[in-house]
Design goal:
This protein is of the alpha/beta class. It is built from 31 helices and 10 strands. Strands 9-8-7-6-5-2-1-10 form an 8-stranded mixed beta sheet. A two-stranded antiparallel sheet has the order 3-4. Strand 3 and strand 4 form a beta hairpin.
Length: 688
C-alpha cells in the first residue's frame, strides 16, 4: 500500500496539472492569512468586541474589516485562478517569455468570467468567493490549455499581426484571435450547460444534484454520514463543500435543529462531526502538533492555531495542503464520520442531550459543546471525539512525512545528477526558473538555504593545514550545509545561492563563523595561524563587500589571521579590476590566496606585485606528481619562485605519505589533505 501511494504521489508530482494546482494553492497562503485575521476579528463570539467594532468611529473599523475580507477571501477564486493559470502556462511552454504567461492568465480569467456571466448576461461577483474554487481551477487548466493550443496550432492566416518595433506589442496583437476564441468557447459552454440542464452555472448544478441524492435516503444516521462525506470530498477536490451542500442543509438538516425527536441536525453536525471545519481539521491540527516531526508542518500548525480555535481551517487546508493530498484523503473523510457516529451513539444512549441550540460558527470547541447541549456532557463527548480524531490522523501524519521524505530523496538525487551533468553547459534560465522536477527541488533547496542564512544556521567545517613538522599552522573554512539531513555538495549550494542572489549573505555568514573560530584557534595556535575562506573575484570586485570584510576584521581584531581564497580562473579574468581591492585588503591585514593554481588559465603577472600571500596547487597537479616528472619540475619551480617573490605554496589533496614525502623533497612546506585530517567542526579542530 505504501509503495502504491508513493508511486501515485510521484505521478501526481510529475503531472503538470497537479503541480500547477499545488503551486496555485500555496500562493494563496498570504491571502488566506490576511483574510482569516479580518474574518476572525469580524466574527469573534465576544459581544463586547462586536459592540465596540460597531460603535467605534461610527463603525469605521467594522467596515475596514469587511473591506479586507472582500479583497482577500471574497476574491479567493480569482487569486487561485491567476496562480494556477500562470504556473500551468509556465509548465506548458518554458521557451516563451512572460508575455505568453501573462496573456494566458488574462485568457483564463476571461474564460472564468464568460463561464459565469454568459447565462445571466452579467457576471455575479459572488462567484469570486470560495464557492467557485473548483470552477476557478477548471477554467485555469482548460483555459490555458486551450489558449496554448490556439497559439501553437492556429494557422497563420487566421492570426492578426501588426508592424512596429515594440516586440511586446507585436506579441500582444498576435494573441488577439486565440484569446477571443478561448473566451468564446467558454461562453458557449456556459450557454449549452444552461440549455441542457436548466441550471445557470456549474455550482448550482452540483448543489441541485446533491439535493436530489438525499431525496431517496431514509434514516438520520445514513443521511448524516452521506452529508459529511460529500461535503469533505468536495473540499478535498477543491470545491467549497459548505456552499455546494447548503441547499441540502436547508432542506434536510436545518429544520431538524428545532425538532425535539431528531438527533442529526445542522447544529449537531457542525459542533460534533465537523469540529474545526471540514474534515474535523481541529483533530488534524492537534495531531500535527503532537506527532509531527517535520519542522515546516509544525510551524504551519502553530500558525494555524489562532484561526483553528475559531473554526477557520483554510490556512491548514490550503497550506499543508489537504486538498488533492491522497495520503490524507482517508482520515479527512473518516474522522468526521467517526465523530458523527460517536456523538450519535452518545445521544441515542441518552448520555448526550439532543442539540437544540444554534451556536455561532466561530465558537471554540468545548465551549460549543456546552452551549449546543446545555450540558457538560457535550464537552465530554467533544473531548472523546478530539482524542479519537487525533489518534486516527496520527499514523497518516507519520505516513505523509515518510512519503514526503522519500519523494524529497528522489527529487534530490535527480537534481544532483542533473546538476553534475549540466554543470559545464548550464541551461540559460538557470535552475530556479525551471518547471520540471529539477526546478521544484532547486526552489526547495534555495528556500531552506535562505532560511538558514537568515537565522545564521550555516554549518562550517575546517580542514587543517600543517607545516613540515606536522604542526597546525592554518585551516580552510568549508561549507557543509545540509538539506533535511542530506549533505549538499558546496558547488551546488553556491550555484543556487548565486542564482538566487543569496551568495553574499551566505559568504558573510561563513566569514562570521570563521572569525569566531579564528579567535579561539589563534589563542591556542599562535599569531601565525591563518584561516582561509573561499570567495569569488566578483565579490572582491565589490567595494561594499570589501568594506564589510574589513569592518568584520577590525571588530574582531583578527588582522593578519584571515585569508581570502580566489580560484585562479576567477583571478585571471578579473585581475585588472580587483588588484586595487586586494591591495586595500592587504593593508587592512587580510591576506589573499590563489586557489586551484594551474587549471589551464595560468598567468604569472598577478604574482609580481605581491598581492597574493599563498598559492594553492590544483588537486589534479598534486595527484599527478608521482607519475609525472614534468609536474614535479613545475611544482619545484613554482616553490622556488615563491621563495624569491614572497608567496608560499600550499599543496592540497595530500592523501598519502608517499605524496607528502615527495612534496617535501620538492621544497613544499605547507600541506592540506586527508592524510592529516578531513574538514571537521571547530571544536574538533581545537582538540586536534
Amino acid at each position: 500500500m505504501y509503495h502504491r501511494l508513493l508511486r501515485l504521489t510521484d505521478r501526481m508530482e510529475r503531472s503538470r496539472v497537479f503541480s500547477s494546482v499545488r503551486k496555485g494553492l500555496l500562493m494563496l497562503v498570504p491571502i488566506l492569512v490576511t483574510g482569516s485575521v479580518a474574518l476572525m476579528l469580524r466574527s469573534l463570539p465576544v459581544p463586547a468586541l462586536q459592540e465596540a467594532l460597531q460603535q467605534a468611529a461610527g463603525g469605521f473599523f467594522l467596515r475596514l474589516l469587511d473591506l479586507i475580507y472582500d479583497a482577500t477571501l471574497g476574491l479567493i477564486s480569482i487569486y487561485l485562478l491567476c496562480g494556477v493559470s500562470y504556473a500551468y502556462a509556465s509548465a506548458l511552454d518554458q521557451t516563451r517569455d512572460d508575455s505568453f504567461r501573462l496573456l494566458a492568465v488574462i485568457a483564463s480569467l476571461g474564460c472564468f468570467i464568460a463561464f459565469f456571466g454568459a447565462p445571466a448576461g452579467e457576471f455575479p461577483f459572488s462567484a469570486c468567493s470560495a464557492t467557485s474554487l473548483f470552477s476557478a481551477m477548471l477554467c485555469a487548466i482548460l483555459g490555458v490549455r486551450l489558449f496554448h493550443a490556439f497559439t501553437a496550432y492556429l494557422p497563420h492566416r487566421f492570426r492578426s499581426y501588426a508592424p512596429g518595433a515594440d516586440l511586446h506589442f507585436r506579441i500582444s496583437v498576435s494573441m488577439i484571435v486565440p484569446l477571443a476564441l478561448c473566451i468564446t468557447v467558454f461562453a458557449l459552454a456556459a450557454l449549452v450547460l444552461q440549455l441542457v440542464t436548466g441550471q445557470p452555472d456549474l455550482n448550482t448544478l452540483l448543489a441541485t444534484a446533491m439535493a436530489r441524492v438525499f431525496e431517496y435516503l431514509p434514516g438520520e444516521l445514513g443521511s448524516g454520514v452521506l452529508f459529511v462525506t460529500l461535503l469533505d470530498l468536495l473540499w478535498f477536490c477543491g470545491m467549497h463543500g459548505g456552499n455546494v451542500m447548503e441547499q441540502v442543509a436547508q432542506v434536510y438538516f436545518i429544520p431538524a435543529d428545532s425538532a425535539p425527536d431528531l438527533i442529526v441536525g445542522k447544529a449537531f453536525l457542525d459542533n460534533f462531526a465537523l469540529m474545526g471545519g471540514c474534515g474535523a481539521t481541529l483533530c488534524l491540527l492537534l495531531a500535527l502538533l503532537l506527532f509531527s516531526r517535520d519542522k515546516d508542518d509544525r510551524r504551519l500548525a502553530w500558525s494555524a492555531v489562532p484561526f483553528a480555535i475559531f473554526n477557520m481551517n483554510e490556512l491548514l487546508v490550503f497550506g499543508l495542503p489537504v486538498i488533492l493530498n491522497p495520503v490524507l484523503l482517508l482520515p479527512f473523510l473518516a474522522v468526521p464520520i467517526l465523530s458523527l457516529v460517536i456523538a450519535y451513539g452518545a445521544t441515542a444512549l441518552g448520555f448526550l442531550p439532543i442539540v437544540m441550540h444554534s451556536v455561532t460558527w466561530t465558537t471554540p470547541a468545548l465551549f460549543s459543546g456546552y452551549i449546543a447541549t446545555g450540558s457538560f456532557r457535550g464537552v465530554i463527548v467533544q473531548l472523546v471525539i478530539l482524542i479519537a480524531g487525533v489518534l486516527l490522523y496520527a499514523p497518516f501524519i507519520r505516513l505523509s512525512e515518510h512519503m514526503r521524505k522519500a519523494r524529497e530523496n528522489s527529487l534530490l538525487d535527480d537534481f544532483i545528477h542533473t546538476f553534475w551533468d549540466e554543470r559545464d553547459t548550464p541551461a540559460a534560465g538557470g535552475y530556479l526558473g525551471r518547471n520540471d522536477r529539477t526546478g521544484v527541488m532547486a526552489n526547495q533547496l534555495v528556500s531552506q538555504l535562505r532560511q538558514d542564512v537568515e537565522r545564521g544556521e550555516i554549518p562550517v567545517y575546517y580542514q587543517p593545514q600543517v607545516d613540515e613538522h606536522g604542526r597546525i599552522v592554518g585551516a580552510e573554512a568549508l561549507l557543509r550545509w545540509q538539506y533535511h539531513g542530506h549533505a549538499v555538495a558546496p558547488p551546488i549550494a553556491v550555484a543556487l545561492a548565486q542564482e538566487d542572489g543569496l551568495f553574499d549573505g551566505l559568504t558573510h555568514r561563513i566569514l562570521e563563523s570563521a572569525a569566531k573560530a579564528a579567535a579561539r584557534l589563534r589563542l591556542r595556535l599562535g599569531s601565525t595561524f591563518q584561516l582561509s575562506v573561499n570567495v569569488t573575484a566578483g565579490q572582491i570586485d565589490d567595494p561594499a563587500f570589501i568594506a564589510a570584510v574589513i569592518k568584520l576584521i577590525q571588530q574582531s581584531g583578527l588582522g593578519h589571521c584571515i585569508c581570502l581564497e580566489i580560484t585562479e580562473e576567477d583571478a585571471v579574468e578579473r585581475y585588472d579590476r580587483i588588484a586595487a581591492h586586494l591591495d586595500r585588503l592587504r593593508e587592512s591585514g587580510v591576506a589573499a590566496a590563489i586557489d586551484d593554481f594551474s587549471m589551464g588559465h595560468t598567468s604569472l603577472k598577478y604574482l609580481q606585485n605581491n598581492a597574493f600571500r599563498f598559492v594553492k596547487l590544483d588537486g589534479s597537479l598534486v595527484r599527478s606528481l608521482p607519475d609525472s616528472p614534468r609536474s614535479q619540475e613545475i611544482v619545484r619551480s613554482l616553490i622556488d619562485l615563491g621563495r624569491d617573490l614572497g608567496f608560499e605554496v600550499v599543496a592540497e589533496y595530500v592523501e598519502n605519505e608517499t605524496l607528502h614525502t615527495l612534496l617535501l623533497s620538492l621544497g613544499c612546506r605547507r600541506f592540506q589533505g586527508y592524510l592529516f585530517s578531513p574538514a571537521i567542526p571547530a571544536d574538533d579542530l581545537m582538540r586536534l
